[in-house]
Amino acid sequence: MNAENKPPVVSRREWLAAVDTLRVREKAHTREGDAITAARRRLPMTEVEPSTPLAGGNGEVPLIDVFEGRTQLFVSYHMWHDGRPGADQCEGCTFFTGQVYELSHLHQRDVTFAVFCQGPFEESDRYRRFMGWDMPWYSVPAESHEWLLAGRGFGMKACYLRDGDRVFETYWTTGRGVEPMAPSYGILDMTVYGRQETWEDSPPGWPQPYETRGQQFRKDGRPTAQWARITAGHDDDLHGAQPRTGGSGCCS
């Protein structure tokens, strides 16, 4: 590392003054974020058929049952590539879905979290088990696309409200709007080199090895999070597949 790819060194007093200057902008950013979420809470909503079928571990499940008795539902729509090995599954959805672990904090606020995956339930559920994810998991059959997707695509996130036996969609987002699901990005944003992605406005010489067409979520041909499972020997759900890129079957 040379002087061209690290910050200048100053006294602690100068450093604290620089941080304090930035803090003013950070607080303004936080307040604007609060204002946006307040506006989000005032959006209208649109009704969704509560009996819309989904496929789960115990067979067909109507949308209203996915709420698990709670009044709110947050759904992560996970992309799936039918018949392709685990190494070729969506690295972005793997990145975001895999960062949701402790659901009790959502349940305390009367919110259920669930993943609605594209494609056959059996294939994607095998991927879920391989990744070690415990969240509720369903697949969306083709006949439910009209009600749930309404012309949109997998990869989005959507919020729903249950009022008795009626269901309403209250909000949805996609693209960078899904970043709140990834605390890793928030942590990286506070480090000196940031996300190290090519689009970022960083000083000359800062490391930026990651393009943003999926490469930022992959390592050696696989979604990054898979390697930790394979290294630890947690690949029993690969049904005999070897820990390598390529091969046949869901997660080979």
Automatic annotation (TrEMBL):
> Source organism's superkingdom?
Bacteria
Which residue stretches belong to region Disordered?
198-218, 233-252
Which one Pfam family would you cite for this protein?
DUF899
**The protein, known as:** DUF899 family protein
